[in-house]
């Protein structure tokens, strides 16, 4: 489990490509301070396992399913990546519940500065749109952010100067892709309302949620 609070920017040292698979070596420092083999580190929001490490770099295997479902396949040598260690049981929960399991890839379609903030409009696959609400949470390239707008196939997020400087999002612009993880609780709510996994009508309705303080 992660929180979406990026600990540092790493840099891709090398990439070995296989058949829809990758072996990534990433330069880092902070996330390697207490690392062990088999630890989980989120790389641009994707939970990956440390398979080798030294004092200044870590190696990860990216399997075909992850290769196809995320933007990691677009990385090149020298690319910067967001890094976050998995959350310690007694750690501070600074963002929101992030699993590191990416739901889809979005595309930045607009980037606009307003005062000290920069707003991004991100176009998303249609099947993800039911998971977003105004002022809900989303992880974009592993960064915990608030949703400030929801349209038919886009969401709007806003970055403060600190986030612009200390995450890869600050260097991305129109046409760039980002990994998207929707809110975990939202997934369960949508599943309960649709009850698609059981093929029968659910007792949890929109009115039930309103009556119990969820609206």
Automatic annotation (TrEMBL):
EC class: transferase
GO biological process, any: riboflavin biosynthetic process
InterPro entries: ATP_synth_asu-like_sf, Lumazine-bd, Lumazine-bd_dom, Riboflavin_synthase-like_b-brl
Record bears the keyword Repeat: yes
Keywords from the named record: Repeat, Riboflavin biosynthesis, Transferase
Signal peptide start and end residues: none
EC number(s) given by UniProt: 2.5.1.9
Keyword Lipid biosynthesis part of the UniProt annotation: no
Summary of subunit composition and partner proteins: Homotrimer.
Cited function: Catalyzes the dismutation of two molecules of 6,7-dimethyl-8-ribityllumazine, resulting in the formation of riboflavin and 5-amino-6-(D-ribitylamino)uracil.
Protein name: Riboflavin synthase
Species whose genome carries this gene: Pontibacillus halophilus JSM 076056 = DSM 19796
